[in-house]
Each structure stands twice: as structure tokens, then as C-alpha cells.
Amino acid sequence: MDKELWRSATSDVFLDPWLRQLIGDADMPARKIRPSRYSVTGYVPTTKGARAQDAESSLEHDFLTLLEYDRRVERYVAQPFTLEWRDTVGAKRHYTPDVIVKYSFRAMRTDPSLRTTVFEVKPRAVLKADWLELKPKFRCAIGWAREFGCRFHLVTEAEIRTPYLANVRFLLDYRSRHLADHADLIGARQHLIARTLSKLGVTTPKALLETMTSDPQQQAELIPWIWNLINQEFIGVDLSRSLTMVSPIWPTENINLLLETTR
After folding, report:
1. Are 168 and 67 in contact (CB under 8 A)?
2. Which residues pair with 168 in a beta bridge?
3. Contact by Cβ (8 Å): 42, 61
4. For the chain, what are the domain ranges?
5. At what angle do helices 183-200 and 216-231 cross, to 10 degrees?
6. What is the CATH number of domain 167-261?
7. What is the pLDDT of residue 12?
8. Per-range mean pLDDT, top range of 24-33, 84-93, 135-144
9. What region does 28 belong to: left with phi over 0, alpha with psi -120 to 50, or beta?
């Protein structure tokens, strides 16, 4: 594919440093999201971008939710740019990928296989029905990604709509430290959970609560902090399985740091 065509389609994103301009400064989507009779449109509030990110389908909304929770993801932009090329008969064609994801330096150092990735989100039924139309677009994206040291990856409901997504939706409500009004109360509850969990080792949320207190009201006040500490990776859990009150949980290697800071 002609690199000049790419450049003309994406404005300055290929000028050095192209990645900073694409991810760091991207604000408006390249493709305007309009209501569709085939899907539900909407947006995802984000802490990993300058603005809420538009989603043109419920499946894409679910995928952006996963990106929002993924601690490896530093930034993501929906409908980030439009690629342009000419087909075999010279007709001008366009393709706007669904999402581009930038992973943090720490994540890439931990996992060298990670790199900036362009994602296309499509239901399997749509891929099957529209494959002949979609294939040239995906080939264009693969060529672009290879040219600029990125990856192109296709994801469907099989990879997105799993028990992990249900867990993420639940846990996102417990990310904030502002689950209590006073800083001292926050520290005290976190310290109590961390200290008790360190003694128990592998346990369950139910057993952890019962060990800390037999008072139902106090248990109700403590349970949000268990979910919060899972979000902060002080408590380990297998999120590929449905999260319940009897799911196995355990202290991670970070738990001692929490005990020191909340003492």
C-alpha cells in the first residue's frame, strides 16, 4: 500500500512523533457515530483519554469497558483515524478502525509482546455475512500496522462477552478510594482487611468478612473495600470465573506495602 495515501488520509499522525500525536492529542473521532438500526450507540466515560469515547455498538461499548479496566492500557481512542487507498480498479476506499490502544511502558517491559494495537470489533455474524467487503479493509489496516510497528487485532463477542466482562462491570463501581468520608476511616478499613487476609492466606470474601466481624452492618461497610482492593491488585482473584462471595481470594505480593502505608 502507498504510504503517501496513508499520510493524506490521516493528516499529521505520521509526522514524528506520530504516536504521541495520535494517542496523546487525539480528541475528536475520525468517524462520526450515528444511530444505527443494527446496533446500540453510546459512549464510555474514561480516565484514559481527554473525553468520553464514542461506541457505535453495544459490543464496542463492552470492549471499551474492558480497556478502561485494563491496568496495562495507558490510553485508547475510538475511531482514531481514517485510512485511504485505491482498489484494483482505481476507486478510492476508506476504512476507520474501531479503537487504537497504547499500553504503558511498564506493561510493555513486563510483557515484551505488547505493542500499540489497532482493534476492530465485530460480531461473528457480521464477519461471516460481510467478509468479502471487510477483508480489503482489514488487509489495509494490517499493512498500516506493520509499516508503523503496531499490531492489528480483530475481536468478537467470543473474546469480549465472557465472565471477565461481568466481573469488570461490577468492579468498576468500586475503583474510587472515596467509599468513605474520612481518610482515617479508609486507611483503617484497608488495614484491617489486609492484615486479616495476610493471616488467612487463601480464603473467600465471605470467610474474610466473618473473620473480621460478626456484625452484619460492619460486614456491609467492609465488603466494598474488598472489591476496591481487588481493583488495586492488593487482593488476588481469578476474574476469568464469576466473582461471588465464595470465590477464592488471596493476598498478593503488594499487600505488605498496603500494610505499611495504612499502619
Report:
1. no
2. none
3. yes
4. 3-160, 167-261
5. 80
6. 1.10.10.10
7. 35
8. 135-144
9. beta
pTM of the prediction?
0.82
Alpha-carbon distance 182 to 184, whole Å? Answer: 5
**Distance in angstroms (rounded) separating the CA atoms of residues 67 and 187:** 28
Does the domain at 3-160 match CATH 3.40.1350.10? Answer given as: yes
CB-count burial class (<10 Å; 0-12, 13-18, 19+) for 72: middle
Query: Which residue is associated with the grid cell 444505527?
Result: 36
Neighbours of 200 (CB within 10 A): 16
Helix (H, G, I), strand (E, B) or coil at 236: strand
pLDDT digits (tens, 9 = 90+) for 125-170: 999 999 999 999 999 999 989 888 899 999 999 999 999 999 999 9
Strands (E), 1-147: 42-44, 53-55, 73-78, 83-86, 92-95, 99-103, 117-121
DSSP classification of residue 25: S
* Residue whose cell numbers read 468520553: 52
Q: How far apart are CA 74 and CA 48, in angstroms?
A: 6
Residue 97 has pLDDT above 90, yes or no: yes
Q: C-alpha cell of 206?
A: 465471605
Q: What is the pLDDT of residues 216-259, one digit of tens each?
A: 999 999 999 999 999 999 999 999 999 999 999 999 999 999 99
- How far apart (Å, rounded) are the C-alpha atoms in residues 104 and 119? 17
Q: What per-residue confidence (pLDDT) applies to 63?
A: 97
Amino acid in the structure at residue 210: E
